[in-house]
Write a structure and sequence with these properties.
It is a single chain. By secondary structure, this protein is of the alpha/beta class. It is built from 14 helices and twelve strands. 37% of the residues lie in helices and 17% in strands. It is globular, with a radius of gyration of 19 Å. The chain starts with 9 loop residues before the first helix and ends in a 14-residue tail after the last helix.
């Protein structure tokens, strides 16, 4: 299998202790750093034959873009497919910690964004993980102070927050700025627009204080700002073909995939069934996700935040492989990543088997699958 040809530019090494693109979608910056929830009744099926593993350890973020995991575990949909095999979930706030957990065997399967997926694959020279499915698309918006910014051209000279240097939203915003013909130094964030790297947990306060004029932010951060009076100036979906781009993948350690393909397939069936239930029952699913967030973080999202946030996220099985490849190219264009060979990052055979059995169309790996 082809391995990564190059690594992140050396200039990034000094910029952050955590490598570029290993940063999680800090959309996922809600809840504890790591929390085991294996006491939940929903994690164990009411019956059924145990598969090849006693347990399957699943990692995800306590965030709406990970609602497939939130709802699938909350409602017992994933556990139902696993029979007597127990689900042991853990939540994370950042991609690096989830990738480390996957590499250490602390989790077997993870719901995670495209940037840490790319970096986890690259750093291991293609030996640590595979992307085995999609989970969500969309859920990212440019929101601004309408008193200071009325049009997209008004962003010039303003301070716009992104979650972290080199994370998925940061790369997307830098690419958008470049396409406008404006210049920004990717490392410092200084230029025609000031890119202010701000953790999603503090972005609402930064906006309220006036230290930023807006944010290219994932949900629910974007809707939190709107609830404070900000205006949505651009929905990132409009920048992508068919209004779709990957925001959450499902990854698995190659070791677990090799040793327990039946468990992987069962989790994928649970994911597909969960997405189907979410799309058929959007109000119930939204309430279920909010209940799960309350359990994990101690508070639920108010209606004026969760309602618009939920509407901007699409829960799908397709990992939208072509968009992940494009996101990697955007990082290269921004000068944050050298050319990287992503061949072999996907193994969609188990998912396509599940989809075919369910009478659904198979999905494509954009030529980046296991040969």
């Amino acid at each position: 299998m082809p391995a990564t040809r190059t690594t992140l530019r050396r200039s990034l090494a000094a910029a952050a202790a955590l490598p570029l693109l290993a940063v999680a979608l800090t959309a996922c910056g809600y809840g504890s750093d790591s929390k085991d929830d294996d006491a939940k009744k929903a994690n164990v099926s009411s019956g059924g034959k145990k598969l090849s593993a006693d347990t399957v350890k699943i990692g995800y973020f306590p965030n709406l873009t990970h609602a497939t995991a939130l709802v699938g575990i909350q409602e017992g949909i994933i556990a139902k497919e696993l029979g007597g095999t127990t689900v042991k979930p853990s939540t994370f706030n950042a991609g690096p910690s989830e990738i480390e957990a996957l590499n250490a065997g602390s989790i077997d399967i993870g719901f995670i964004g495209p940037s840490p997926s790319i970096n986890g694959f690259a750093k291991s020279k293609g030996k640590s993980l595979r992307i085995i499915g999609g989970s969500a698309s969309g859920g990212v918006k440019l929101v601004v102070n309408p008193k200071k910014i009325k049009t997209l051209d008004d962003l010039k000279g303003k301070k716009i927050a992104t979650p972290q240097l080199g994370n998925t939203q940061d790369v997307a915003f830098l690419n958008w700025v470049s396409e406008k013909g404006w210049k920004v130094d990717a490392q410092s964030g200084k230029g025609d627009v000031s890119v202010v790297r701000t953790d999603n947990k503090v972005t609402p306060d930064a906006y309220k204080s006036g230290s930023i004029d807006g944010a290219w932010a994932p949900e629910p951060t974007a809707s939190k700002l709107v609830a404070q009076g900000a205006k949505v100036l651009l929905d990132e979906r409009k920048l992508w073909p068919d209004d779709k781009f990957v925001i959450t993948n499902i990854i698995v350690s190659q070791k677990f995939l090799s040793e327990h393909p039946d468990v992987v397939e069962a989790v994928l069936r649970g994911s597909v069934n969960t997405n189907a239930w979410i799309n058929a029952n959007p109000d119930k699913a939204k309430a279920s996700a909010n209940a799960a967030l309350k359990t994990l973080s101690g508070k639920e999202l108010p209606a004026d935040v969760i309602d618009p946030a939920w509407e901007s996220i699409e829960f799908i099985d397709d990992p939208l492989a072509a968009t992940l490849d494009t996101e990697a190219k955007h990082a290269v264009k921004a000068g944050l990543l050298d050319e990287t060979d992503l061949s072999g990052i996907y193994d969609l055979k188990p998912l396509n088997k599940v989809l075919k059995a369910a009478g659904k169309p198979e999905v494509d790996d954009a030529g980046l699958g296991v040969k």
